[in-house]
Amino acid sequence: MPRKPKYTKEELVDTAVAIIREEGEESLSARNLVKRLGTAPATIFTHFPSMDALEEALTERVRELYNVYVNRGLSKNPPFKGFAIEHVKFSQEEPNLYIFLFLRPKITKTLDEVMEREGHKELLVGEAMKVFSCDKETAEEVYENLVIYMFGLASMCSKGLCSFTEEELAKKFGLAAGGFLHAVKENLPWYSIVPEENGKVIAEESPYHSEQ
User: Fold this and answer.
1) 51, 54, 61, 71: which sits with the fewest CB atoms below 10 Å from its CB?
2) Which of 82, 87, 37, 84 is nearest to 63 (CA)?
3) Residue 151 has what pLDDT?
4) CA 30, CA 55: separation in Å to the nearest integer?
């Protein structure tokens, strides 16, 4: 008869979260878990059949912590900007959990996978349609570009390369969303120009035009 564990399934997951939060994902192992819990390694697997199963439960727990930030952002006005600000705040306040949830190469390979993993695309596209008074196609393109910008800022913050106040983030996301919206709505040809050496002269009305 298997030995009854000294801890609950929830305590095991919370301990795993604590290890990642304090030391990073690379420190998460069966050995470190049982050391903190003060029990034998085999008892971990009375709750989970494998470390992969534990990782799935751990991911869901970290997502619950992330969603506290998301819900706080969506409760603000406008929710579209509130969400983006809180996403970056999560990366600043919980850098190791952010890296675990979003920046592991083995779990995301394409932009679509990044947006799917984030998990709020449909809701945020709807909010963008209301905030910007635009159709769904325009809102999706603005959202996609905002996600790229948002993840860029959050990734730098999670690595300790920079940090922003809420006011600074509000201004940055306001400028970014406004620029993306203008570019998508106007559909001006020079926005998609690929820079070339000795390329053709750009139209005079383009912001990239040069007399040289």
Assistant:
1) 71
2) 87
3) 94
4) 11
d(C-alpha 67, C-alpha 62), whole Å = 9
Cβ within 8 Å of residue 199, ≥6 positions away = 193
Output the pLDDT for position 207. 60
- Can the peptide bond before residue 95 be classed as cis, meaning omega within 30 degrees of 0? no
Give the pTM.
Answer: 0.85
Cα–Cα distance for residue pair 21/62, rounded to 1 Å: 10
**Residue 108 burial by Cβ neighbours in a 10 Å radius (0-12, 13-18, 19+):** middle
Distance between CA atoms of residues 151 and 173, nearest Å: 12
Q: Which of 106, 203, 212, 87 is nearest to 146 (CA)?
A: 87
Name the token pair of 159.
């690595």
